[in-house]
Design goal:
Layout (H helix, E strand, L loop, with lengths): L2 H14 L6 H4 L18 H14 L4 H12 L1 H15 L4 H5 L7 H13 L4 H61 L1
Helix pairs in contact: 1-8, 3-4, 3-8, 4-5, 7-8
Amino acid sequence: MTPVWAALWCAVAVLAWPKRPVAWRWAGRRRVQGVDAGWREPETAVADAMEHLALALSGGVGVQAALREVSHATGGAGGRELAAVSTALAAGADDDAAWARVPARWDPARRALGLASYAGVAPADLLRGAAADLRRDALARVEVETAKLSVRLVLPLGLAFLPAFVLLTVVPVVTAVATSLTEQW
């Protein structure tokens, strides 16, 4: 195989590579494409905040005070969202109206606190269970994305290793066989 063929195979591999950077999707903090919005929080930020809420509630703090303290400790967008819920509860809003102010990613926390309030049980265990479910779902998504990545890497790796395999194994064997055949004749 000549260098021209090797260059051709490399060009095909470059053209077949995905258009957007794949590494952005698996970073702990994700870059929002198309919008200059900076960095988003990791997927497990809600689960971490729910664990902190469970710890605060286990220590005997009320729900509104726990939300306020966890919002200060969390910071960022998640902290602002929890602060909005805490402020709404302090202003006398019911639970549904207070949690309506935040995105749907906080639904597991809302459901756990609502179920605990309805059943009259301590919400800490429900929050911990919901946080474990969120982490399990995040891990499943990472595993699926990893499987997709391995499929996407097959073509470029095949295009890179196939010419090397042919040059290093097939060509020398064919050359040796051809040389031995021409010497015998």
